[in-house]
Amino acid sequence: MSAFSREQITQLSQSQSEPKWALEKRLEAFAAIENLPLPKLEKTNIDRWNFSQFQLHQVDATFSQPEQLPVEVNRLFLEDHSNILVQKNDAVVYQTQKALQQGVIFTSFANAFQQHETLLKKYLFQQETAHRISAIHQAFMQGGVFVYVPRNVTVELPLQTVFWLAGEEAAIFPHILVVAEENSRVEIVANFLDTDAGAALSNSVIETYVGQGAKVQIATVSQFGDSVVDVMDRFAQVGRDGDMEWIVADLSDGRIISKSTTNLEGAGGHVDVKSVAFGANEMRSNITSEIFHFGTHTTSDIQARSVMKDKATSILNSITKIEKGASKSDGQQTGKVLMLDPEARGDANPILLIDENDVTAGHAASVGRIDPLTLFYLMSRGISKNEASKLIIRGFLDTVIADIPSAALRASIHETIEGKFTS
Amino acid sequence: MSTPNLDIRDLQVSIEDKQILKGVNLSVNGGEIHAIMGPNGTGKSTLASALMGHPKYEVTGGSVTIDGEDLLEMEVDERARAGLFLAMQYPSEVSGVTNSDFLRSAINAKRGEGNEISLMKFIREMDKQMDVLEMDESFATRYLNEGFSGGEKKRNEILQMMMLKPRFSILDEIDSGLDIDALKIVAAGVNEMRSPERGVIIITHYQRLLNYIKPDFVHVFMQGRIVKSGGPELAERLEQEGYDWVKEELGIVDETVGHKV
Ligand SMILES: Nc1ncnc2c1ncn2[C@@H]1O[C@H](COP(=O)(O)OP(=O)(O)OP(=O)(O)O)[C@@H](O)[C@H]1O
Ligand SMILES: [Mg+2]
After folding, report:
1. If DSSP codes are grouped into helix, strand and coil, which group holds residue A163?
2. Is A420 among the domain residues?
3. Is B95 within 8 Å of A399 when comparing Cβ atoms?
4. Which residues contact A389 (CB under 8 A, 6 or more apart)?
5. Nearest chain B residue (CA) to A401
6. Looking at beta carbons, which residues of chain A come within 8 Å of B160?
7. How many whole angstroms separate alpha carbon A95 and alpha carbon B114?
8. Which has the closest alpha carbon to A128: A29, A39, A220, A219?
9. Least C-beta-crowded within 10 Å: which of A47, A259, A262, B115?
10. pTM of the model as a whole
């Protein structure tokens, strides 16, 4: 990280008008970067991936109408346009906010530091920076969004965010912090993309606090080009009878480390992880869904699917840990990889760790190719090989995609996947 | 269009270097129904699969034309679009693909880009044919053959045939596993398709099916070829007397194929 100095970190912090405690957290992380190791990933060697060579581009132009945004960005929005935040590199360039109930916060961090400092101080930067990548994130954190939903409030329409990377060696470090108080409900969609070639890094973190009886759904759709190292670290803490749903669409073409960790703390908490990936060319991905059951009667379900084309590689790790005392809990997981070409690679690693007797758990994992007899069957009805493969892939992913509540989001994921399949 | 014709000449087929078909000759015209009967393991399904272009079967000799075009030069999907249909003995299950999405893709593949069937028309047509086959409407949205019972799979094969209206249908043991009511329903479906525009090959072990679908020709299959042909009365005699008299007449000891090379 010799290319950067403490002064630059200080500047970053000041540009968001951050309080002193936040700057200190950043500088602490910055100092730790050199000494912290990279995370150890199952079957993926990341020693040569680029996490630290990048430029901090500044953006000046903002947009007042969605039509002014490039089509790649504009097409990401769902049917409803009420609550949108678009961040390009370091700055929010487009924002709408309509019809949010009293007390609901949906805002950039620069804003949040000024208006909601007490809340941020309670939740932000509370996790350990366990490895070099998370320390880099904490030091360089730029923008992102803060979502707060008060008790008993249901946010009816999804909150939509776009994190948009542009420019040679560009990097973004968005942080999404979601606090859902008791019995509240909220859905958030976060899109990640680049619009021109040559961007370097997206190093993002999502932190979610699901209060008692609250329900939070977060969908991330990543579609960076092949020059980008795309790291996303998601964390959720779920309270009593809380409900968390992660929808993860890893559609980037470069290098991907995609992880979600959910702690089911309170009794009766539930989490669903629905993860799909489609890789083409030389894409490499390591995708981990990790769940810790602490509370009694907690339930979890991981459904992960990866389709790999050309020379793409996918390692799917599903980890369910049921701690001692989490009795009457249930953990289920299914991870499947479908390889389309001889040089595509994939691996599914199902891990169940159970320290409590009175629980149920199950896992299924498979790595395979399109069955030639299935292909023959579909083709025998006049469907071309290409169309037949598309149908089979769609079917393979649909067990996960069909459950995504927004039709527009489903369609957009299908469209991206079909584009990649055909290219 | 001229009268449909499927012409099979001296067809020889191997699987994993083992020769199974040893010179099959058969010509089927529009309006004709041909029944193929024969003991287990004599190559009937092999003939059906090889005609459709099953990846495991290798054609080592002979020729097949469909309406004068070389069938064996075509890819599997081209064969289907040329008018060939195979109701399979063991159809695949395809998870995540609904029956109706699959059928619509198949119909549109035949109709070609820019000429896709309207959704309304498709649904109407599918409802109508499912009614004929007395299939519950839930089968439209279920995943293709997934968890279907044996009889439901057979009905679904016939549904596909009725939707796609192929010039030539090969029905491989469409009657096996069907109860008597289902058999009548499936037979009614096939009879509804009967027309000078269409030819049908029915592979079966039982005269019973042929009571409902009257064949014009009956062929006996042994040792990887047709060894005897006749009219409907041949099927009746086979039902009563079995195959021994045919073997005796032709001096055949082992009617199966591919076990000794
Ligand atoms: N995929 C295969 N692999 C190995 N042998 C095969 C394969 N398919 C067919 N055979 C062999 O070819 C021979 C003919 O099989 P086929 O299925 O054509 O018989 P059939 O006449 O349809 O029999 P049945 O009346 O029992 O359906 C059998 O000996 C069978 O074992
Ligand atoms: Mg057979």
Report:
1. strand
2. no
3. yes
4. A340, A370, A375, A421
5. B96
6. 381
7. 40
8. A29
9. A47
10. 0.88
What is the residue range of B54's domain?
5-93+165-250
Ion ligand 2 — residues with CB < 5 Å: B 45
- Alpha carbon nearest to ligand 1 atom 4, residue: B15
Encode chain A (423 residues) as per-residue pLDDT tens digits.
668 999 999 999 998 889 999 999 999 999 999 999 999 999 999 999 999 999 988 887 889 988 899 988 988 888 888 999 999 998 999 999 887 888 999 999 989 999 999 999 999 988 778 899 999 999 999 889 999 999 999 999 999 999 999 999 999 999 999 999 999 999 999 999 999 889 999 999 999 999 999 999 999 999 999 999 999 999 999 999 999 999 999 999 999 999 999 999 999 999 999 999 999 999 999 999 999 999 999 999 999 999 999 999 999 999 999 999 999 999 999 999 999 999 999 999 999 999 999 999 999 999 999 999 999 999 999 999 999 999 999 999 988 888 777 788 888 888 889 888 887
B115: contact with A, CB 8 A cutoff: no
Which burial class, exposed, middle or buried, applies to A5 when counting CB atoms under 10 A from its CB (0-12, 13-18, 19+)?
exposed
Residues with CB under 6 Å of ligand 1 are B 15-16, 20, 38, 40-46, 56, 257-258
Domain that includes residue A299, residue range: 6-369
B206 touching chain A per CB within 8 A: no
Residue A197 main-chain phi, psi, to 5 deg: -70, 160
Is B156 contained in some domain? no
Number of domain units in chain B: 1
Token pair of B167 as six digits: 């010039």
- B238 near B231, Cβ under 8 Å? no
Has residue A205 been placed in a domain? yes
Tens digit of pLDDT for each residue in A9-19?
999 999 888 99
DSSP symbols for chain B? -PPPEEEEEEEEEEETTEEEEEEEEEEEETT-EEEEE--TTSSHHHHHHHHHT-TTEEEEEEEEEETTEEGGGS-HHHHHHTTEEEE-SSPPP-TT-BHHHHHHHHHHHHH-TT-PPPHHHHHHHHHHHHHHTT--GGGGTSBTTTT--HHHHHHHHHHHHHHH--SEEEEESTTTT--HHHHHHHHHHHHHH-STT-EEEEE-S-HHHHHHS--SEEEEEETTEEEEEE-HHHHHHHHHH-SHHHHHHHT-S----SS--
Interchain CB contact of B94 with A (< 8 Å): yes
Task: Specify if B106 maps to a domain.
Answer: no
- Cβ contact (<8 Å) for A381 and B92? no
Judge: A396–B96 Cβ closer than 8 Å, yes or no.
yes
ipTM, 2 dp? 0.95
Q: How many domains does chain A have?
A: 1
**Residue B175 is assigned to a structural domain of this protein:** yes
Distance in Å, alpha carbon of B228 to nearest chain A alpha carbon = 29
CA A98 to chain centre: 25
Question: Taking chain B, what is the end-to-end CA distance rounded to the nearest angstrom?
Answer: 44
Residues of chain B with C-beta less than 8 angstroms from the C-beta of A382: 77, 80-81, 106, 109-110, 164
Residue A23 within any structural domain of the chain: yes
Token pair 């002193």: residue: A20
Q: Write the CATH number for B243.
A: 3.40.50.300
Write the residue with the smallest CA distance to atom 25 of ligand 1.
B40
Residue B106, token pair as written in the block: 């198949």
